[in-house]
Amino acid sequence: MSRIDRASRAIAAPPATVYDALLDRAALEAWLPPEGMRGRIDRWDPRPGGGFRMVLTYLDPTDSPGKTSDATDVVDVGFAELARPARVVQTAVFQADDPAYAGTMTMTWHLAAAGDGTEVTVTATGVPPGIDQAVHEEGIASSLANLASHVERGA
Questions:
Q1: Which domain of life, per UniProt (predicted)?
Q2: Closest Cα partner for 40 from 62, 52, 55?
Q3: Which of 70, 141, 150, 154 could be stapled to 7 by a disulfide with Cβ–Cβ 3.0 to 4.6 Å?
Q4: Local structure of 16: helix, strand or coil
Q5: What's the CA gap between 52 and 88, in Å, rounded?
Q6: Cα(31)–Cα(102) distance, rounded to whole angstroms?
Q7: Number of domains making up the chain
Q8: Which candidate, 93, 42, 91, places its Cα nearest to that of 67?
């Protein structure tokens, strides 16, 4: 069976608000980098078939060296599917010389109405074998916590 990395979180904002945060450049730069990182989007094309390039910089690369350089991960993300307000499917390719990080990872963001809020579930398939599953799931959970904090402030 192929590996599936997953994390979910209830967010106190409606699905449309959460969806909008998945497709807003400034919002993504603010909430997508997990704890211990900051992010910058270099290229932005928010449409099916479009995507973005994000440069993630480790605040302390000592324990977590980058995939692209000693302190960075550069990832090219494509928007494979945009189904407002229920789902965003992204493809992600890391720029790395190490073949353990090669390949295309698919990240699916499922948004389901749950009372006055949204249950957000992220599943990742095709995860490069160099990415530790527990660390990846912790990173997804951290991004979800950042997303919740970002959209709940505006709700």
A1: Bacteria
A2: 55
A3: 141
A4: helix
A5: 14
A6: 25
A7: 1
A8: 93
Residue 69 makes CB contacts below 8 A (sequence gap 6+) with none
Question: CA-CA-CA-CA torsion for 107, 89, 40, 27, nearest 10 degrees?
Answer: -120
Whether the bond into 85 is cis, omega within 30 of 0: yes
The residues that bridge with 117 in the sheet, in sequence order, are 114
* CA distances to 9, 22, 25, 126 from 100, in Å: 29, 28, 29, 12
User: Residue 89 sits in a domain of what CATH number?
Assistant: 3.30.530.20
Q: Which domain holds residue 144?
A: 4-154
Distance of alpha carbon 147 from alpha carbon 47, whole angstroms = 20
Q: pLDDT of 60-74, one tens digit each?
A: 877 666 677 778 889
The pTM is what?
0.92
CB atoms within 10 A of CB 113: 13
Residue 109, number of CB atoms within 10 A of its CB: 18
Task: Give me the sheet containing 105-114, strands edge to edge.
Answer: 4-11, 117-125, 105-114, 87-94, 72-83, 51-58, 37-45
Give dist(CA 68, CA 113) in Å, integer. Answer: 37
The helix/strand/coil state of 35 is coil
Asked if residue 120 lies in contact with residue 13, where contact means CB atoms within 8 angstroms, the answer is: no
